[in-house]
Amino acid sequence: MSTSGEDLLLTQLDAIAKGVSETFAPFCEVVVHDLKNPQHAILSIHNNLSGRDVGAPATELGLARIASPDFPNILANYANQFADGRPVKSTSVGIKNAQGEYVAALCLNVDMTLFRGMQHALAQFTQLAADAVTEHLEPNGAAAIRLHIDHFAARLATTPRALKAQERKLLLQELKDSGLLDVKRAMETIAQHLGVSRASVYLYAKE
């Protein structure tokens, strides 16, 4: 690839970097490295979170790529950190020229600070007491009715809401024979699971 071709590649890579950074802002920094110029490798930084400057030298990873064309093309989701200690999830993609030499790299650095805070908050919010009492917020037997309906539909290779009228009649007969129609608010549970009105369920049960 000619020098002009490599310059065009960097220009296009910079456009991609800008689009990615705008999509994942404000959490993701996207950096374009010009590996042909390791002393001033950083060509651009979009959504700068690390505090680095354009023209800064290549990192150890960049230098490793320059040294060996066999260096992995993609290093995804590896642990990293910014200078101030913030945890980072990084991904680095190497770009080769026609001769198989690394000439550029696209690096994504995601600030994990907020996400880890959210993770801890969610873990605390969803934590349940080990000695909590048991309480059922649905009519007794409703789960058995829904399970029977699901099994019935599965035997016909369909879903409860896709059952045809004749199939619903057969279903109601099965539920009656199994005693599940005697469950409190059974008709309401069946109607909700089938996606039909209670009047329709009563009609199917009578036929």
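That was protein one. Protein two is written in the same sequence-then-structure order:
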Amino acid sequence: MVTLVGILDLARFQFAMTTIFHFFFVPMSIGLGVVVSIMETMYVIKKDETYKKMAQFWGKIFLLSFAVGVVTGLIQEFQFGMNWSEYSRYVGDIFGSLLAIEALVAFFAESTFIGLWVFTWDRFKPSIHVLFIWITTIGSMMSSLWILAANSFMQNPVGYAIDNHMGRTELKSFSALLANKQLWVEFPHVVVGTLVTAGFLVAGMSAFKLLKLKKGDSEIPFFRKSINIALIVGLIGIGGALISGDKHAYDLQSMQPMKYAAMEGVDKTINSADRKDKAQPWSLISVTNPKTHEVIANVEIPYVLSILGNHSLTGGKTIGTTELEKEFQKKYGKANPEIKSYYVPENTLFYSFRVMAMGAGALLLLAIVALWMNRRKSQLILTQRWFLWLMGIATFAPFLINTAGWLVTELGRYPWVVYGLMPISDAVSPNVSTASLLISNIIYFLTFASLGGVMIWLARRVLHAGPNAEDTEHLSPSDPYSHLAKGGEA
């Protein structure tokens, strides 16, 4: 097997595996931070202890996701030096500043205030304590901003100059990195995606719990309220994702046209001016031959691509992958003779994009129906157990959608690691061996599988215990400062 798989393939697989697993928990922790913040804010406003219990209960799941996200994020960053040292050397001047700010400012802020939030429930007024979780949540979002600024440079390089003597990029304008057009379509899309993830996670886990509770159980109102709050957050997220996703796809036509054409299954250029209906059809289903890169079968719906890509019923032009391949060969061929093809994985991008878009539509419908069934005077959501099962299964849908989105983002950049500047083949470390990569891949896979299993087991345990379980973390007999909260002296 070692002789059949190359270093580049193993390095790419390892980074993809790490990134996908890490991104299971990043949207989860950021989104749960928002949900928990809203719950505690409602406690501050309404003085209802139920909302305090909700913040504390779902905060336990938030802490689990935060911890696993930190561990997997560290592993991901180590790989820049382990497997991608040439890439790190090439963009180090740019990435260094962004990652340093993320670690020293955003991550330190969220790490500090998450500790204050966990251990000071009875030592600060509620109106002060709620600020800790909001600062933690905002800090998490700011962490993602700096990381996505680095990723946006890979997608659309700006604010740099090439040092031909050293063979690397140099930062010329930090403000240009922050003003990157790619960043301000990518960052909002990721943030609203975190709301979708957390919203349907809380709603789905609540649905699973309701399936276990008997009629009249005191915990039923708790989980019904959790569903309503979570799904409202989820609906806001879906609305934002539709708007930001449309803007993102629209901008791809100029920034990364090959990615856009593959997402829409367009191999030959579609010019609405040459068609009788003066519009571009949209492919619901498309199959591309990976060898010839020609679409061999598709099902088209008239006018839709003009609406999506041109924002009007008619008009617009989508350049096909065949024409783009010729353009890219002329544009980059002399400087990069090692690149034989600029085609991206068409079928993967096409269906990943549809999983993302149609999955969001399905969750939108599910949330609307669930909120109607869970309205205050209705018991419908409790009697329709099949619907609770459907909501429970939908817990996993955002993770699939997020993964599909990252496949579109990262595979659509192929064959570049920095778009138009550095091919993936030039970025891998020259001193790693196939055997070491194979072994580390196996170790990482087992590590991630174990972490994921432990995370699911602990989350299930928290859910099974319920919100009324004794909380040993807050003012327990083992707490050396519990006497202070009761008015005792130090």
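Residues 472-490 have pLDDT under 50 and may be disordered. Keep this in mind for the problem set.
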